[in-house]
Design goal:
Number of strands: 4
Order of helices and strands: HEEEHEH
Radius of gyration: 13 Å
Low-confidence stretches: none
Largest sheet: 4 strands, mixed
Number of domains: 1
Structural class: alpha+beta
CATH architecture: 2-Layer Sandwich
CATH class: Alpha Beta
Number of helices: 3
Oligomer: single chain
Length: 116
C-alpha cells in the first residue's frame, strides 16, 4: 500500500467532512500540530487531510510543509478504520524533518491512529 496514500480516495477534500471531524471532539495536539480523529465510515482504508494557515508563510513554504506531513504519513502503518485531519501550526516551521516526524508520531500514537 505504500504510495497509494497519494490517491484521491485517501484524501478528505470536502469542508463538511472536515467540520464533522473537528466537531467529533476526538483530538490531540502540541505546539506544532493538532490532529482531529474520527473512527471510520464505510471505507476500507484511512483518509486524511492536512491544513496550513496562510500565516505559516508563502505558498512554497506551505506546500513543502504539507509534502513533509504526507511523507511522514506514507511511512506509517495507519489504522485502516480512521479519518483524521492534521493542522500544522506556525511553530513547526522551526523544526527539522526528523523533529516534525517525532512530534507527529507521538500524536498519532496518542490517538491510536498508529500502533506502538
Amino acid at each position: 500500500m505504500v504510495g497509494d496514500y497519494m490517491k484521491k480516495a485517501y484524501r478528505i477534500k470536502k469542508n463538511s467532512e472536515i467540520k464533522e471531524l473537528i466537531n467529533h471532539k476526538k483530538s490531540a495536539g502540541n505546539k506544532y500540530f493538532v490532529i482531529y480523529k474520527k473512527n471510520n465510515h464505510e471505507q476500507t482504508h484511512f483518509r486524511f487531510a492536512v491544513s496550513v494557515s496562510k500565516k505559516f508563510g508563502n505558498a512554497v513554504k506551505r506546500n513543502k510543509a504539507k509534502r513533509r506531513i504526507r511523507e511522514i504519513i506514507r511511512e506509517q502503518d495507519i489504522n485502516k478504520t480512521v479519518d483524521f485531519f492534521i493542522v500544522i501550526k506556525n511553530n513547526s516551521s522551526n523544526l527539522t524533518f526528523q523533529e516534525q516526524k517525532q512530534q507527529l508520531i507521538k500524536l498519532l500514537k496518542k490517538l491510536k491512529i498508529i500502533g506502538d
